[in-house]
Every structure is written in C-alpha cells, then in structure tokens.
Design brief:
Layout lengths: L2 H29 L4 H27 L5 H33 L13
Helix pairs in contact: 1-2, 1-3
C-alpha cells in the first residue's frame, strides 16, 4: 500500500470518527423514546449500518485493508469531537457569564421622567 493511500485512509478514518460521533449524539437523543427491546435492536442496526458504510468507503480507498492505526484514528476522532464540544460549552458559559449577564436591558427601556 502506497503512502498516499495510507494518508487518505488515515484522514478518512479520523473524519469518519467525527461523523460517527455526531450521528451517535443524534441517535442517542432519540433512542430512549422506545422500549428496551427496540433500543437493543436499533442500537445493533445503527452500529451495523455505520460499520458497513465505513468498510465500503475504506474498500474504495485502499481495497479494504484495515490496520490498527485506522481504528485508533477512528476512535481518536470520536473522542476529539466530544472534547471539542465540552470545551466549546465551557467557553460559551464563560463568555455568557462574563459579558452577556452584566448587560441590563431595563436601563435601555426605562421611561424618561
């Protein structure tokens, strides 16, 4: 396998990890609205479909050869997306508390006596 194909496979695995994490968040929000039996079936189908999509695309990139570092970058993409979301929430709360809560709207809407 050439170096270019390996780099394409690494980038794809990383980006698919981020994509999978986003889909997992959306799926997780809707999962608990059904019975436990359907939760198990839906989780299995979700993982099966995503793994099939991953391997089909990987097959088009590098003829389906899987190395451990592809899986590592897939997992790294999942964790990185979760980490970035957590940091962005903390930054949003910090900025909101520091700048937006000190603005008093009532001052601008009071009547002049």
């Amino acid at each position: 396998m050439s170096l270019i194909i390996q780099i394409k496979s690494l980038i794809f695995s990383f980006l698919y990890g981020i994509f999978f994490s986003v889909l997992l968040d959306i799926f997780d929000k809707n999962l608990y609205r059904v019975r436990i039996r359907y939760q198990i079936i839906n989780s299995f189908i979700f993982c099966f479909i995503n793994s099939i999509i991953y391997f089909f695309i990987l097959r088009n990139i590098n003829e389906g050869i899987i190395h451990i570092y592809f899986v590592v970058l897939l997992i790294f993409g999942i964790f990185l997306k979760s980490y970035v979301v957590k940091i962005s929430k903390v930054l949003y709360k910090t900025i909101k508390n520091k700048y937006l809560l000190h603005f008093d709207k009532r001052k601008h809407f009071t009547k002049n006596n």
